Amino acid sequence: MARPLHRNSPGHRLLPFSVSVRRDFHMHPELGLEEKRTQKVIREHLKALGIRPRNVGGTGVTGLIRGRAEGRTLLLRADMDALPVTEENRVPYASREPGRMHACGHDGHMAVLLSVARHLRETGLPEGNVKLCFQPGEEGFRGAARVIEDGILENPPVDACFALHVWRDLPVGKIAVLPGPCMAATDLFTVRITGKGGHAAYPHLSVDTVAVAAQVVGALQTIVSRQVDPLDTAVVTVGSIRAGTTYNVIPETAVLQGTCRTFRKRTRKLVHRRVKEIAAGVARALGARAEVEYDEFLPATVNDPKAAALAREAAAEVVGARNVVEADPSMGGEDMSLFLERVPGCYAFVGLRNEKRGIRHPHHHPRFDMDEECLAIATDLTLGVVRRFTRR
Ligand code: NI
After folding, report:
1. pLDDT bracket for residue 131 (50, 70, 90)
2. Given this structure, which CATH class describes domain 185-298?
3. CA–centroid distance, residue 21 to ligand 1 (Å)
4. Distance from the alpha carbon of residue 344 to the mean position of ligand 1, in angstroms
5. Taking residues 33-59, what's their average pLDDT?
């Protein structure tokens, strides 16, 4: 397995601190926009480091570290929320809250950012500013939009941004930085089909919304298979169908819900338009009516090529060039995209898997865990990024 090059790096020196901070968050997970305790703990850590904390976006926290000389302002973002999952790991630091778990690794992201802050306060930042952003509600709440509306990109204005995700698809010791899109645009839709209810034995007197819904689901599959450029990528998933109550009644209505994932703006628009046209058109052809609500929820997470190159350089310094890998972009969504839409920057993936230790469960799984070595690597990576991004 790949091992990091620098055993005496700041990330490794701070690892006991990172681990204890991460485990504390892990034991006390809070769901999106409810991160009250988490906010309080972060505020205390920042105060202890002599950084003035300011609440942002409700349950978020920001703080500014000023450098000795003028330079650029880099925003470092860590997400804060846990998931509605009951942990199944039997570890001393397991979640103490049934039905809540840091099953995505955001506990680790916060620990890394606090270690980075600690190192910068201990050694000093030579130039520029580092703006810490502990962001609430990443898991489907668009917490990034809240902190942005709250002015996190101003005073001082942010020149660049960086965030990372500890990543199960990569073994610990590897880092992936993609130039360009790395996570997909995430859109949501609801199709409400209205027909005519009636007795199941007399379909000719009804307009059967179950039959219509089935045709709509089938037809939506042709968007990806027949309309999106085969060299491009998209997903259309219908995740929920609700219609009817029993076997002998034709229901008056049916409701479909789903999500679309794309990388390119053009493709995103195409998929949006086609979902609406197909749902409405198929319903009409079958004598029903379909109303489509389509929510362009999050744009794709797109790395600035220059920022990605700098981050790759920083990554190579930490784990060695051969351990900086090309990963496939993920069809998952990430609200870091909202920062990257406004400010050039980079979103990186830091490996956390360790098969030998049984750490191999996917994100959001009740047995998700991380090889905590990844916290040291992520800290060193972030410090390398700070050095490169705050320079004028
Ligand atoms: Ni996550």
Report:
1. very high
2. alpha beta
3. 18
4. 21
5. 98
